[in-house]
Design brief:
The complex is a heterotrimer. Chain A has helices at about 1-30, 30-55, 65-85, 85-110, 115-135, 135-140, 165-185, 185-195, 200-205, 210-235, 245-260, 265-280, 285-290, 295-310, 315-330; strands at about 145, 150-155, 155, 235-240. By secondary structure, chain A is mainly α. By secondary structure, chain C is an alpha/beta fold. Chain C contains ten helices and ten strands. Classes of the chains: A mainly alpha, B mainly alpha, C alpha/beta.
Chain lengths: ~350, ~325, ~240
């Protein structure tokens, strides 16, 4: 089957090309804001694509997902600020505490169905926020935790380098994406889909519902926890805004617009969306057109985008791409793929 | 524990229980009837508080009207016969420097919230009714709605906090040596009254009966000729008005911020899960129970740990009664 | 002709349960439908009353096409569907259930006198008027279900399996009540498994199989009842 080999070769070629382009970006692009947004976008892409594991594949509405990110940020930040622990140790600790939190949340959550899961996880994330706000001496309260040290290796300071954060976060995103894609195409991923689509049948066939859901929560929390730590050291602040409706909406839009149960969709749209929304916040035409402060307006746009997506493109951008390529391929005599759909 | 402390706890429990009851009963009503969960319910509380503030406070519409009043007065001077008509109008506008007061502010807030609730239903809920997974889709769209409203209010009013006038002014009431503010007393009295009105509406009005009918059996509701597609938005409007009232009361107690209501929404969630979704009596009892747990744990342990105690309670309830403490056969 | 169904097709999703069914009811006539379970009798009633859409065919009431009209508009025209007794508002009292039966405009103003009529027909409902519907016995629920239908002042009453699952004594009581309603001149379609019950009430019978009329009797009074029973049971075995 030479055409399979061909397709594989093309695939590797695309990956190689992508990596080369990626490595070249910080040396070509000379715009500080653009680079900043790229890094932020990749961090959000990590959080969004991991959310896709629970939301898209497991079909569980986990609204505590951003809390994993926040817990990662605060853990690493607090360890560095209050205990002077190196970020390189703090960031994994952040992932660990995010994982711990995911297990705590999932224990009651896996027993529940539909709407109750959403309520419980939402309550959980807001409670984490309340706890953070209640200890201002440790967490900085409403103002957030300031003075988080930046990343450095020896004397090499990441914030002073054009490429260090970019490469680090890029590597993290790459690892996360490979991890997620492997996961969702593995037996574990298939069992999640089976539980999502035909719960009773899947359980009857011996798939342990509670264990798989707990694992889904746990596995979806690790990379956001890591990303949270990097986020805090990158922005040198950990802010309670992470838990707000606005960021939740933004990240939710990345998953939905990108296409649920696709992983690639949220990754790509995560980066793009960050660009669009941040540029919206910083571009002059917004204030010229509306004559108002711009920050909040972008979140209003994001909200509108979400509702429009849910209404008109429930399968998201990646779903449309897949549908389109399936149509092209099926005309080349190949089995069409079912587009992913919001259940 | 002293008697004084007990009175303080009970008073606190009644105040927060009232606020939770107002919010949670709206959530429960919508869930029971439309089978949807409104995550923008907290934002409606905020809309209620802001709209009441806008009309009643001198920083709101009164301030915005001043230049208009001035220009009317100015133009009345050189427009002859018409001027004698315009002058009193302009002077009247100039005279309301202090705002219209809560007497107009509260009805306006109710109107606003009802309207916003209706618009929300049309844009965020209606397109998805009857589709598979609609309840989960609507969570997403209403979260988006909440974000839209929060940020929208911030655009209009700015991020700085506002404060609503207290409805009753005067020295706090002394009950067994414990001082209880008049606003608090008012909340304690008005909430059961409001809920009683809600009860009367649901029990004895034709529309209220129809709402309950749709909640219990929408197939049969169709067969007796109820226009089910009209009952859904109606339920949203009623629930939004309850949220708005909660906002008016809350706005007299605390500061008004674009993000207000989020914390109350959280407690309302705890309440509805605790009391069982869709059961109004369960919700109301649950609200006061949660209020009591919160206040007493805040007093006995620590204010900041009260949410944790509540949360632990919630988890325990969910582990043993996944459909809420008082949730019955409802699925 | 009061009511006519022509070539009706309907069902759930892609599956057709009613497949090109035609029947008619004359003014003041009482028509019985019987036949095996799952062959489309209930689906027919649900389509006629607007709960599920008709995919093809026509439903005419007083000459007007009412297929795919909103359910409430069909009720407003006096075509009232009484579902099986488990379809009530369970957490409402008997009184509230009956009140909702008079929800539509045409019956709202005559509520009081209709209450009296229903209570005269089913004295037991009057005794239990303050009780929640879910606490009623099977027979009482069925009475309530019919009562709710009567509150809407039907011109054509569709009764779905009024006798299903009832003890013989209650069944008889119910059959008497239905005969009484029939005697007031209300036109009726009664669906039931119990052919004897239908024979006691109806002027004509249709046998429904595989979503269509497979047999239509002439005036029942002209036909030997045993013959009909034999036709039905003979066909099944």
């Amino acid at each position: 089957m030479t055409w399979i080999n061909e397709r594989l070769n093309i695939r590797y070629a695309i990956w190689a090309l992508g990596i080369v382009i990626f490595l070249a970006i910080p040396h070509v692009v000379d715009d500080k804001l653009l680079m900043h947004l790229a890094i932020l976008g990749m961090l959000y892409a990590i959080v969004a694509s991991n959310w896709d594991l629970t939301l898209g594949y497991a079909g569980v509405f986990n609204f505590a997902h951003l809390a994993f990110f926040g817990i990662g940020a605060y853990t690493s930040g607090i360890l560095a600020v209050k205990l002077d622990i190196s970020p390189w140790l703090g960031i994994p600790c952040g992932a660990l505490s995010a994982a711990l939190a995911s297990v705590i949340v999932s224990i009651p959550a896996i027993r529940l169905r539909g709407i109750y899961v959403a309520l419980l996880t939402f309550a959980c994330s807001q409670l984490v926020l309340l706890l953070l706000l209640s200890q201002p001496l440790i967490t900085g309260g409403q103002q957030g935790l300031t003075g988080v040290p930046q990343l450095q290796i020896g004397d090499f300071r990441f914030r002073e380098s054009r490429f260090a954060h970019f490469y680090l976060v890029g590597l993290l995103l790459l690892c996360s994406t490979i991890f997620l894609r492997r996961l969702v195409t593995s037996d574990f991923g298939l069992s999640l889909i089976a539980l999502r689509d035909f719960e009773e049948y899947a359980v009857a066939r011996g798939i342990p519902l509670a264990r798989q859901r707990l694992l889904a929560f746990l596995l979806s929390s690790i990379f956001p926890g890591l990303a949270g730590g990097v986020y805090a050291h990158f922005l040198i602040v950990a802010s309670p805004d992470i838990f707000g409706f606005s960021l939740t909406t933004l990240l939710l839009s990345m998953v939905l617009v990108g296409g649920v149960a696709t992983i690639y969709g949220p990754v790509i749209v995560g980066v793009v969306m960050t660009y669009v929304s941040e540029l919206m916040a910083s571009s002059a035409w917004m204030s010229d057109v509306f004559g108002i402060s711009r920050g909040p307006v972008r979140f209003m746009f994001v909200a509108v985008l979400i509702v429009l997506t849910m209404r008109f493109f429930p399968q998201g951008v990646w779903g449309l791409v897949k549908q389109f390529s399936a149509r092209v391929r099926s005309s080349q005599k190949d089995a069409p793929e079912e587009p992913a759909q919001m259940r | 524990m002293t008697l004084e402390a007990l009175v303080a706890i009970i008073a606190g429990a009644l105040v927060s229980g009232s606020l939770y009851a107002l919010m949670a009963s709206g959530l429960s009503l919508v869930w029971g009837t439309v089978r949807m969960f409104n995550f923008a319910h907290g934002a409606l509380v905020m809309v209620g508080a802001y709209s009441a503030w806008y009309v009643s406070n001198r920083g709101g519409i009164a301030k915005a009207l001043q230049p208009i009043g001035k220009s009317i007065v100015a133009s009345s001077e050189d427009s002859g016969a018409l001027g004698s008509l315009l002058l009193p109008l302009g002077e009247w506008i100039l005279s309301i420097k202090g705002g219209f007061g809560l007497a107009l502010g509260v009805p306006f807030a109710i109107l606003c919230c009802g309207l916003v609730g209706y618009i929300m239903y049309v844009l965020l809920v209606k397109p998805f009714v009857g589709k598979p997974g609609a309840d989960l889709i609507v969570i997403i769209t209403t979260i988006a709605g909440a974000s839209f409203m929060q940020n929208g209010v911030q655009v209009i009013f700015g991020p700085r906090y506002k404060q609503l006038d207290r409805i009753l002014k005067g020295p706090p009431l002394q009950i067994l040596e414990t001082a209880i503010g008049l606003q608090e007393v008012l909340i304690i009295i008005l909430t059961p009254l409001t809920l009683f009105l809600l009860h009367l509406f649901l029990k004895h009005s034709k529309l209220g009966l129809a709402i309950r009918a749709v909640a219990q059996n929408d197939d049969f509701a169709h067969l007796v000729g109820i226009n089910v597609s009209q009952i859904y938005p109606l339920t949203f409007v009623v629930s939004s008005i309850l949220a708005g009232l909660c906002g008016v009361m809350l706005g007299g107690l605390f500061f008004i911020l674009p993000t207000m209501g989020a914390q109350e929404l959280l407690f309302a969630f705890v309440v509805v899960v605790f009391g069982g979704l869709g059961s109004l009596p369960g919700t109301i009892v649950g609200a006061y129970v949660i209020g009591f747990i919160r206040e007493s744990s805040a007093y006995i342990i620590d204010l900041y740990w009260a949410p944790v105690v509540l949360f632990a309670t919630l988890i325990i309830v969910l582990i043993f009664r996944p459909r809420g403490l008082m949730g019955g056969e409802d699925s | 002709m009061l009511f006519q169904v022509e070539g009706l097709v309907s069902g759930y999703g892609k599956i057709d349960v009613v497949r090109s069914l035609s029947l008619h009811v004359d003014e003041g006539e009482h028509v019985g439908l019987f036949g095996p379970n799952g062959h489309g009798k209930t689906t027919l009633l649900r389509t006629v009353s607007g709960l599920i859409p008709a995919k093809a065919g026509k439903v005419r009431f007083r000459g007007e096409d009412i297929s795919n009209l909103d359910a409430r508009l069909i009720v407003e025209r006096g075509l009232i569907h009484v579902p099986q007794g488990n379809q009530l508002f369970p957490q409402m009292t008997v009184q509230e259930n009956l009140t909702l039966g008079a929800y539509v405009r045409r019956s709202d103003s005559r509520k009081a006198s209709n209450f009296e009529k229903v209570f005269a027909l089913f004295p037991r409902l009057q005794e239990r008027r303050a009780q929640q519907a879910r606490t009623l016995s099977g027979g009482e629920r069925q009475m309530l279900s019919i009562g709710v239908g009567l509150m809407g002042m039907p011109e054509l009453l569709l009764l779905d399996e009024p006798s299903v699952g009832l003890a013989p004594l209650i069944k008889e009581e119910l059959a008497r009540a239905i005969a009484e309603i029939a005697a007031t001149g209300v036109s009726m379609i009664v669906v039931d498994q119990d052919v004897e019950l239908l024979l006691g009430i109806c002027d004509r019978l249709y046998l429904i199989e595989k979503g269509a009329v497979s047999l239509e009797t002439a005036d029942v009074s002209q036909v030997d009842q045993a013959e009909i029973l034999e036709m039905y049971f003979g066909k099944v075995t």
